[in-house]
Specification:
It is a single chain. By secondary structure, the chain is an alpha/beta fold. The longest helix has 37 residues. The chain contains 16 helices and 20 strands. About 12% of the residues have low confidence.
């Protein structure tokens, strides 16, 4: 996913007002949803969590979340809290300091959230609303009406954003229902995610929400999956959806199923040979299919694979064995199949090891699915690169499942992360531990509860001196490529202006004129040569930037990655047409100068 993706999770489970029942689900909702959205193998969102915030802080965070975005951004906002209805029927989202008689002053109105959604420049915005409407009150404890109908979708799905490409709202229940925590609204039930958010997390984490098995979980896929799961658990809760989107919105990568390739059928002559009654003709067809199976063009190779499977199932034993032997060449063959990272100190830079994939292109075309959150896999030209997170101490044992078009393979991973002793830890300068900032995503938790001060503050682990800091090489190269491309465009314009002036001078000179002299007199060749040189260097510099980004992707933030890709794409879009025109102009000069 190449766009910039941001998520804001607002979870409120503690309320100052005694009339608002304490909720058990929001804290679990926030932790589970943050984990799955932040995972680069699933959602790849930059995630911010706001926990038990006041109404003022909620409004500030919501408006800040939607501000300063562009059309390449995808925004996801999730609420897990009480939903309250005013006397006039408007929906309010409860904050930690909400006073039910003073909703307009102490809660966040749905109209405010809708205004922020529709005012953003982000290309797409998605709102998940996991709250109950009126049912969150204890009986007889508040004067705000908790009965009657309120339609959450109507509170948000009014009109169309002026600047973005679209929006979507999914609510945990309809206008007349509770959003249940577990199976019931019980005081003494154990904390766990709500039915709605649990279904969202489960569908994304397992990939089961990828209903069409295309490798991505779309918004429609997720809603259909969540609807079924919630209805199975509680038929009295009905999730609802409203959307105004252009095109399909992919929320996450799928961890379900194998890769699917649209096959190109083999030529009719080859299919006829497969069905021939002559033994040698069918044998020759299998040999030809085996050659096509090894081709770099994956749709062609996939078509050959499907035909070979048909032969292996239906033909006589000698021919079927030849087809089965050919199919064995595209089984997944990773090496090594067991990775032992040994021992590593806690907080050290992520360890990484390569895995080589052998076989023809169709065999190497697979998707890697880490089964644990501390594992990450990046593709390389020869296979994969496996990374182990060392932020948490302990013995690690995990697996990476490789799923291809034909079969599956498992890579087992072992590692031991040793805790850093307190004696060697470095004390913080301000008496508190600074949060860890990850290079590819931002995670922030805001809480209004006062921090607990231990009697003996623990010292944070000392950061190793060899830990890599985020690099600026790729964005710098991308910027240089864009500058060179712009220079080539400018010099081409100057060259063309001089060439036009030279042609006009040649026309005025009549039979005695010489176009080569006019070209030199007007200085058209120098900017043309500079254009060719700067355009070529721009393409080479952009290629270096993309290579640097791919080779050291873990060193760059998502913003730097997105910026680098945008700059190199613009540079390429300028340089290639410019070089084409410059080459044509040079050829025209060389060929036509003798006739002028």
């Amino acid at each position: 996913m190449t766009d910039s993706r941001h998520a804001l999770i607002i979870a409120n489970d503690r309320y100052d007002d005694q009339g608002l029942k304490k909720l058990k689900a929001p804290a679990q909702d926030a932790a589970a949803l943050e984990r799955v959205l932040h995972d680069p193998q699933i959602g790849d969102f930059e995630v911010e969590v706001v926990h038990n915030a006041s109404a003022d802080l909620m409004r500030r965070r919501i408006q800040g979340f939607f501000n300063e975005r562009d059309r390449a951004d995808t925004l996801l906002l999730h609420f897990s809290c009480h939903g309250l209805k005013s006397e006039s029927g408007e929906l309010y989202l409860a904050a930690s300091d909400t006073e039910p008689p003073l909703l307009a002053a102490t809660a966040v109105p749905s109209q405010f959230v809708r205004g922020c959604m529709y005012g953003t420049r982000a290309g797409r915005t998605v709102l998940f609303l996991d709250c109950c409407y009126g049912g969150a009150f204890s009986r007889g404890s508040t004067s705000v009406r908790s009965s009657g109908e309120i339609n959450a979708l109507e509170s948000f799905a009014k009109g169309e954003p002026a600047t973005g490409r679209g929006w979507a709202v999914i609510t945990a229940s309809d206008s007349m229902e509770y959003a249940f925590e577990g199976s019931q609204l019980a005081e003494n039930s154990a904390p766990r995610p709500s039915l709605f958010t649990h279904a969202v997390v489960e569908g994304l984490q397992t990939g089961e929400a990828d209903l069409d098995a295309d490798g991505n979980v779309s918004l429609d896929d997720l809603y259909e999956y969540v609807y079924r799961q919630v209805q199975e658990q509680n038929p009295h809760q009905t999730p609802k959806k409203a959307a105004e989107l252009r095109g399909e919105l992919h929320l996450a990568h799928s961890r379900r199923g194998r890769i699917k390739i649209v096959a190109v059928p083999s030529p009719p002559s080859l299919q006829a040979a497969m069905n021939s009654e002559e033994f040698l003709t069918r044998q020759g067809a299998v040999t030809e299919l085996r050659k096509r199976l090894r081709r770099k063009e994956l749709p062609m190779a996939e078509g050959a694979r499907q035909h070979l499977e048909e032969v292996a199932r239906n033909d006589i034993q000698p021919i079927a064995e030849l087809a089965s032997e050919a199919l064995s060449e595209i089984h997944l063959a990773p090496s090594p199949r067991h990775l032992d990272f040994g021992r590593a100190p806690q907080g050290s830079p992520p360890r990484k090891q390569p895995v080589t994939l052998y076989g023809p292109p169709l065999a190497r075309h697979c998707v890697a699915q880490p089964q644990q959150t501390w594992l990450r896999v990046d593709p390389t030209p020869t296979g994969l690169e496996v990374h182990v997170d060392t932020s948490t101490a302990g013995h690690r044992s995990g697996a990476i499942v490789l799923k291809g078009v034909a079969d599956e393979a498992v890579i087992h991973v072992e590692a031991v992360v040793d805790p850093v002793s307190e004696r060697n830890a470095r004390p913080p300068s301000n008496g508190s531990t600074a949060p860890t900032r990850q290079s590819h995503a931002k995670r922030e938790t805001v809480t209004t509860e006062p921090p607990r001060i231990p009697s003996r503050p623990k010292k944070p682990p000392e950061r190793t001196t060899h830990q890599p800091s985020p690099s600026h090489r790729a964005p710098t190269l991308a910027g240089a490529a864009l500058a060179l491309a712009a220079t080539s465009v400018i010099t081409l314009v100057l060259a063309l202006q001089a060439a036009v002036a030279a042609v006009m001078a040649r026309g005025d000179a009549g039979p005695t004129g010489n176009v080569e002299d006019d070209i030199r007199d007007h200085g058209a060749l120098t900017p043309l040569i500079v254009c060719l040189i700067t355009g070529a260097i721009a393409l080479v510099t952009g290629a270096f930037a993309r290579h640097e980004l791919g080779a050291r992707q873990e060193h760059y933030t998502s913003k730097a990655t997105s910026g680098t890709r945008t700059l190199t794409a613009v540079a390429k879009g300028l340089a290639i047409p410019t070089l084409t025109l410059a080459v044509l102009a040079g050829i025209t000069y060389l060929v036509g100068s003798g006739y002028w």
